Amino acid sequence: MAENYENYISKNIKAFYKRKLFAPILYLALLAALWQMFSLSVLLSPASLPSDVPLESAYQSRTEYVSASLSDLKFTGYTQTVLGHTVGYYYYTIRAGECILILLSPGTSEEGLPYIAEAAVQGKIIRNGESYDQLLANLSEDLNWTEEGIHSKVSHYYISEPGFHKAENTLLFAAIFLTGGYSLLYIAACILYIFFPVLSPSCRDLALFGNPKKLLEQAEEELATLPQLATEDMFITEHFFIETSVYGNAIVPINEIIWIYKYSTLHKFFWYHFSISYTLYISANKHLYLQCPKNIKSDIDGIIDYLSEANHNILVGFSEENRLKVKQIQGTPMHFEKFIAFLKKRI
């Protein structure tokens, strides 16, 4: 038995965080694949459009999203609306030897200034469509030109600043970098806990009751030499209650436990009830709250009976009377402690 439980807690902490690595690594791999698939780097840092490159050449080379410095912009008098809301103002200018149209956002154009000397824009090069052709048709009437004539003078491509979707892209990249950064930090934390189990949250909780390293070593030694009670993933030694399950790890000094009870959960699929699982709830001093989910009734009953015998001060069973006694013992936790307890409960 000593051989089976040698460094058992540390081994399970390491195994737990090795399993935890899978999800964030998979997410980052998926994120990288989507980034590559949709060429998101182009949106993050659009290519600079040289002043001597026609829009058609840039579009044919698949440089759709561009950053360009434009000058001598004149308002056409036409706007683009979506659901009755003006999203852009059409301007024209001469660039690279051709007359081009630019759809500027309301902010850049200041709601349709007649003339803009210079503007730095990030936009999408769009090939002419039905609405664009209709715009040229209206312009040809204003200028007393034929449609063929204006099509021969004006580029079949235009730059759309609203088409760049700057606000949406900002939100997209904020979500990508925030979630990606969180995943990297989570991976780093898991690796840290794998190499140094004593730094894991379950061991850091021991700091409430003494030196975490010494208490972990004591718990390891007691579990390796003579566990008093052992179930599939819960153990009781002379001085500690220990959990090492796929849902998490916990180490609590028995003399610090003040309340224990079980809660049953009925699992069903539509109207069919197929199983009942039990969760062991433990409240300890210093506002430490633990849950040991998805256990069988006999295991939890055995744990509760043994703990109540090992520490006669432990309150057993859920009741309003016990809840009030625990509240009186614990006192009212600070707001930060309440927040941490809430997070632990939700997790």
Break the fold down into its secondary structure elements and pairings.
Elements: H1 8-20, H2 22-37, H3 40-44, E1 47-48, H4 55-60, E2 65-82, E3 85-95, E4 98-104, H5 106-109, E5 115-127, H6 130-142, H7 147-153, E6 154-160, H8 166-195, H9 201-204, H10 212-225, E7 229-230, E8 234-236, E9 240-245, E10 248-253, E11 257-269, E12 272-284, E13 288-295, H11 297-310, E14 315-316, H12 320-330, H13 335-346
Parallel strand pairs: 1-2, 4-6, 11-14
Antiparallel strand pairs: 2-3, 2-5, 3-4, 5-6, 7-8, 8-9, 9-10, 11-12, 12-13
Helix pairs in contact: 1-8, 2-8, 6-7
Describe the structure.
- By secondary structure, the chain is of the alpha+beta class.
- The protein has helices spanning 8-20, 22-37, 40-44, 55-60, 106-109, 130-142, 147-153, 166-195, 201-204, 212-225, 297-310, 320-330, 335-346; strands at 47-48, 65-82, 85-95, 98-104, 115-127, 154-160, 229-230, 234-236, 240-245, 248-253, 257-269, 272-284, 288-295, 315-316.
- The strands form three sheets. Strands 2-3-4-6-5 form a five-stranded mixed barrel. A four-stranded antiparallel β-sheet has the order 7-8-9-10, sandwiched between helices. Strands 13-12-11-14 form a four-stranded mixed β-sheet, with helices on both faces.
- Strand 2 (65-82) and strand 3 form a beta hairpin.
